[in-house]
Amino acid sequence: MASVNLDTAFTYEAPDVRGHFGPYGGAFVPEILIPALEALRQAYAEARQDPAFWEDYAALLREYVGRPTPLTFAPRLSERLGGMRVFLKREDLCHTGAHKINNTVGQILLAQRMGKKRIIAETGAGQHGVATATVCARFGMQCIVYMGAEDVERQRLNVLRMQLLGAEVRPVESGSRTLKDATNEAIRDWVTNVHDTFYLIGSVVGPHPYPMIVRDFQRIIGDEVRQQLAEQLGRETPDALVACVGGGSNAMGLFYPFLTDRCVRMYGVEAAGEGLEGRHAATLSCGRPGILHGALSYLLQDDDGQVLLAHSISAGLDYPGVGPEHAYLKDLGRVTYVTATDAEALEGVQLLARTEGIIPALETAHAIAFLPRLAQELGPDAVVVVNLSGRGDKDMGTIARYLERKCTNNL
Fold first, then answer.
1. What beta strand segments (E) does 56-149 contain?
2. Quick one: residue 141, left, alpha or beta (phi over 0 = left, psi -120 to 50 = alpha)?
3. Tens digits of per-residue pLDDT, 164-194?
4. Section 368-383 average pLDDT
5. Of residues 89, 270, 389, 394, which has the active-site annotation?
């Protein structure tokens, strides 16, 4: 895609009325879903103008989710990185242990407003599934979560949490048995039951208006960072923001309130898996535009346009697509997208655990793994905010297997 003048990014206003972020986004769906998407767009447009809706949302974030989450200075990590001051936005301290709950609270209020009683969702790492099951329990709604069979095995603890919360978890055996295939099944369910079902999408992906809705519900992350930096440092903006990118919701929530601040650099860290020459999930780094799950965005695909299997040690990043707004921001040059391998992410887990006593999710660990490179680039005077999108409890089995193999290989 052709580059756009960078000035465009600093007068940022997207998507347009048809849901396009530059050339990306839109709604490429079966005809039967068009009325459902239009009903959702209209319901959200009305809710967006309704102060009572946002008052309910803010009250739930405050009293149920536990917001605002802290912005924590990381002194030992900063020292290890040569003095660059690192602040951690602690989304891992949200109720359910990840940022996903911010969006599910907003969308369940929309579903309630639209009179829906049956909720479907898809999940990779299980964090979105747990967050959806949680709000369904809170609001007394039926909940069905589609999850790739491979991810069911990798995220057994989160499967149990969803079931305990009353959700029905449906393993998906087709394809790569991961998030892409779970999303396919969720869309099939929606097509069949569109009259009474609300599809609660967990990232800034899918057809319009979902990428905009999820972004708006996640921008609370960046809004709080701005206020907390002002309180702690007397400045509203950092020198750089860093977040991992799979579908891209935690990154979009952090970046969005700062897009027009020219002084703030932004870095999205994709999963390079086994390396960019091998299996990976680095969609923006190695993909090209194509249509997946209802939107035009960057996509891992072969020469014939067939979707390639993605790979990441992190189930939450194991996805061959990415949100269309990230594709637009890449072309604008407003956000720099870099990569971290599986091995580097595991080093990121250990780095944060041993310097700050925080075990991050494997998704988040990709962002941590990028920090040593960023410290060399920015130097010791820089202030950097890293979004800790989730906690690592769910990944302990994967982390333990890696450490055991490492010990065995060193014998």
1. 71-73, 85-90, 118-123, 142-148
2. beta
3. 999 999 999 998 888 889 999 999 999 999 9
4. 98
5. 389
Q: Is 314 a catalytic residue?
A: no
Of 78, 91, 100, 344, which is the active-site residue?
100
Q: For the purposes of burial, counting CB atoms within 10 Å of the CB of 74, is it exposed (0-12), middle (13-18) or buried (19 or more)?
A: buried
Q: What are phi and psi of 289, to 5 degrees?
A: -60, 140
Nearest in space to 61 (alpha carbons), one of 91, 127, 105: 105
Active site residue 150: no
Spatial distance between the Cα atoms of 223 and 100, rounded to a whole number of angstroms: 16
Over residues 44-58, the pLDDT tens digits come to 999 999 999 999 999
Task: Please give the biggest Cα pair distance in the chain.
Answer: 63
Nearest to 125, CA basis, from 162, 89, 73, 88:
162
Question: 386 phi and psi, to 5 degrees?
Answer: -110, 130
Q: Which amino acid is at 163?
A: Q
- CB under 8 Å to 231, separation ≥6 — which residues? none
| 185 belongs to the catalytic site | no
Choose the catalytic residue: 78, 89, 91, 122.
122
pLDDT of residue 217 exceeding 90 = yes
The strand ranges marked E within 173-259 are 197-199, 240-244
